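Hello Y.,

Per our agreement to keep a running log of every chain we model this quarter, I'm adding this entry. I've kept the format consistent with earlier entries: sequence first, then predicted structure.
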Amino acid sequence: MASKEFHAMQEAMAARPVPPPPADIAEQRSRIDEAMAQMPLAEGTVAEPFVRSGVAGIECRPVELADDAPILLYFHGGGFRIASALAYRSYGSHLAAVLGARVLLVEYRLAPEHKFPKAVDDCFAVWESLLAEGIDTGRIVIAGDSAGGGLAASVTMHTLADGVLPAGVICCSPWVDLTITADTYDTNAESDKLFSRTSAEEAAPAYLGGADPMNPIASPLFGDWDGAPPLLILVGDAEVLLDDSRKLADVAKAAGVEVTLSIYPEMPHIWTMSYPAFPEAVEGVTEMAEFVARVTA
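Predicted structure for the entry above:
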């Protein structure tokens, strides 16, 4: 059963007035950035812009940090169409504080203006910039949530092709199958208030732009995971993307990958972003921190 703190937060959110729908996607992006940019950084952290290989982003890190600290290369969610590094800045700072790491939030190009594989190209370019800098890949963990969790898996497909791998991969509530055929789109339709079959059916074609949804770089569920580094998957059992996580775990395990699949009872889509508001969010971020510490040791 979910904590009383979680239920209290859900009740408070449900009581808030519902704003009018945005006029277009530009207004939707602006609203998200304006609201989330006001959230404070974690105590003892800083957030600074960066540009790597022509791709912008924000680096969050503790003020006091060892030179050989882990690096979390993080790709935000938003259905490939919304959100930003700015929107994730507060969350990134909390991850940096808990993980004791540099967290690089990548400002990848968004659909529908920039279609597949532009977002993957941007994320992979930042990965390559770390390699060019001479950073030991044993210090780097690739991560993301929702569509960004899919991008983390997509970048992993690229690293497998190149033979230069990160220390590990974290996928939180990942969207890794753009065919939109999972049973949980229907069985969890009532419990998932943040993502839906309708959302997916709007976002996927806007991102794919006619590309095959079974392309393993677009839908890494269909990729060859043989030789991949340790994989941590976090998902709530109330999510429509629950089956994406289960199937990804099965595919990776069948390829011999070390996989940890953690399914959190009653948790909604990307609940970890609410850290530290309720115990389940703290538990999820703590699990991420323990994974990063282990694979980068």
